[in-house]
Design goal:
The protein is of the alpha+beta class and 281 residues long. It has two domains: 63 residues, no CATH class; 210 residues, 2,3-Dihydroxybiphenyl 1,2-Dioxygenase, domain 1, CATH 3.10.180. The protein has seven helices and twelve strands.
Length: 281
Amino acid sequence: MRPYHDKVVEAISRRGRRFRRASSPAAKLIASAARRAATAGGAAHKNRVRVTLAALLFDVDLATRMTRNELDHIVVVAGAREAGTAWVEESLGVPLQAGGEHERMGTHNALLRLGEKQYLEVISVNPMAPAPNRPRWFELDRLMPDSAPRLATWVARTADIGVAVAACPPPPLEILAMSRGVLSWLIAIPADGSLLGGGILPALIEWPADVHPLAGLTDHGCALTRLEGFHPDAGRLALSLDAIGLGEAIELRALPEGGRPYLVAHFETPHGPRTIGGPRA
């Protein structure tokens, strides 16, 4: 019997009106998910995934839009912004810039440019701001003022956040309008402020056209070269990432059952290769 993912590619070639070759981005995206499905879970799980993939065949345009999603920034959380900033500066040997305040969340941040398309964010509760009437993002409500900084999660940029959220597996995400100074954007996060997949799955962000924090950030010669995510259910998370076109944005590694998820980010800096992240104490 021919591999299931080969059949998916062939079906896309037949049905996709605007995709005449099986090498189209949409075909590659769905076939990648099919390949993972062929090696993940039992028969019942595979059947459920195959039904989902078959449904995608009827909306090739949706799959094509998913290929526009990419890593936007990585997120370091800390009990205090100053402590998080100092930790990253010591780890990477480059200075961060002050960001600003997020009034809706009662948080503030500091930023570091990472090449032409990405950046690093240090974020914490702003002790001078009133508490919001909702849970703060990135599980910041769980931190104490002296909590150690850590690489907690990442955020993926999308051109159509509504489409991306519709393609996401549970739990449902809430789309919020956010602002910081002159910047404004949409972000999709769990309503309870939790980290998706223990931080291995990203929040989603949509920036207005020609608006991005990178425009105001100094380039200190630091670039993100690789992001790794460690999780005991890495296969399931890989399928979730494939569903929103982010299967290539992060390298997933399996942990033993019961292992605590964590991220490791690899950088090229003026001082050579550096990393941040790792297992939590």
